[in-house]
Amino acid sequence: GGGLPPPRSAPRGKRQRFVDKNGRCNVQHGNLGGETSRYLSDLFTTLVDLKWRWNLFIFILTYTVAWLFMASMWWVIAYMRGDLNKAHDDSYTPCVANVYNFPSAFLFFVETEATIGYGYRYITDKCPEGIILFLFQSILGSIVDAFLIGCMFIKMSQPKKRAETLMFSEHAAISMRDGKLTLMFRVGNLRNSHMVSAQIRCKLLKSRQTPEGEFLPLDQLELDVGFSTGADQLFLVSPLTICHVIDSKSPFYDLSQRSMHTEQFEIVVILEGIVETTGMTCQARTSYTEDEVLWGHRFFPVISLEEGFFKVDYSQFHATFEVPTPPYSVKEQEEMLLMSSPLIPPAVSNSKERNNSVECLDGLDEVGTKLPSKLQKITGRDDFPKKLLRMSSTTSEKAYSMGDLPMKLQRISSVPGNSEEKLGSKTTKMMSDPMSQSVAELPPKLQKLSGGGGRMEGNLPPKLRKMNSDRFT
Questions:
Q1: Residue-range domains of the chain with CATH
Q2: pLDDT tens digits along 42-73
Q3: What is the maximal distance between C-alpha atoms in the chain?
Q4: Which of 159, 202, 211, 342 could pair with 282 in a Cys bridge, judged by C-beta atoms 3.0 to 4.6 Å apart?
Q5: Boundaries of each Potassium channel inwardly rectifying transmembrane domain copy (predicted)?
Q6: Ranked by mean pLDDT, which of 189-198, 242-251, 341-350 comes out on top?
């Protein structure tokens, strides 16, 4: 009342995230022990997963060691045959012509490996060991080229960079949409090339304790973003707003604006699709902590119609504005709705329920059993259906009760001026009609009791049979 500003909550420390905004997971594996040998069993994937600086270092080191090793082998063969001392003797045929020291042996290997072939150094037929070494060099060189060049090509063509052109909004928002409290965030594609079969998923990471006392620090719960309706399959041509309806099945069923200041959770968003140009699967990730969820906000529209095309304004991609939103959780709203209207008349959903009066009476008994204990004491179990029937005589319930009557009674009661006595007399006349006609107008359940069109006196208790006989007479 004094106009003082609300007290500000104490600033929180830096929030430890499981997934960064750029999609990198903050997880480090330690104390593997003897399990590190598993990385060597899948060496190709290990090299691809390494950072670029380590890949370039391994690439250069492997080729350098292989060249020096093979050049040394050629030098050893020339040294053992004595070709180094007789290199300038024209009458002598060496294993490799013009190889008289280690640099010349290295140049011969490079010329052979790169298939340059200057023609100055060449292998002769007087050296069988040189021929074997030449074959070994060709096979080893092909394996090294296929392994390292293939590794570099796969690393360069990885679709991780394609994920950088997929945008997520900086904040998520909670507001009303279609009359329901909804969690929303926005995704967009900056490239003109499409993401084929794009699909989005959401995970809620939150710590909890089981009834047995087990503590789960990162319990993963699924957030439904349209899996049942197919809304999770995206046609990502323009920015889309992804919605999660908060209902009784949602993990945010108890979440309110007040409880967001004490909750700690993280929403991980995973967007997967196939890159149209390369055909490779791409995955983009981001996350939203509780501080990045705005209560009572909605995203600005970013699409406008121009002359012959739709224009997307990415300057408003992350912008939100406030909208009226109740600060209560969905659970609290449902409880307040039940407290304000404890008695709810039975709803008629289809024509079968309108024609079945027996099922309506059974439903009234069930309503009586579901009332609170205090209301059950007031109304009484035996008198409760009768009082509800008496209440249904008001104007608001006439349409519902008339739907349960046969067509003749509806036409009679719709005529103004007919009193209840006239209605009762005409009903008595109708009861005196042939039984086949009245049975045809009965609900299915009573028709089944009537035995396919016969009279029902055989199936009734003696007390009701006597009442019917007195009434007809």
A1: 36-158 (1.10.287.70), 161-336 (2.60.40.1400)
A2: 888 888 888 889 989 999 999 999 999 999 99
A3: 146
A4: 159
A5: 19-159
A6: 242-251
| Cα atoms in the Cβ-side hemisphere of radius 13 Å centred on 98 | 8
pLDDT tens-digit map of 304-328:
988 888 999 999 999 999 999 999 9
Q: Which residue has the tokens 């002598």?
A: 92
Tell me the C-alpha distance between 237 and 401, whole Å.
Answer: 53
For residues 392 and 36, give the distance between their C-alpha atoms in angstroms, rounded to a whole number: 77
With a CB cutoff of 8 Å and minimum separation 6, the contacts of 273 are 195, 196, 197, 198, 199, 234, 236, 281, 282
Residue 262 structure tokens = 């004490």
- Strand pairing report for 266-275 and 281-289: antiparallel
Using only C-alpha atoms, the chain has a radius of gyration, in whole angstroms, of: 42
- 460 CB-contact burial (10 Å; exposed 0-12 / middle 13-18 / buried 19+): middle
Strand 297-299, strand 320-322: pairing: antiparallel
DSSP conformation letters of 358-400: HHHHHHHHHHHHHS-HHHHHHH-TTTHHHHHHHHTTSHHHHHH
- Are 271 and 242 a contacting pair, CB within 8 Å? no
Among all chains, which residue has been given the structure tokens 């309503």? Answer: 367
Residue 19 structure tokens: 């997934």
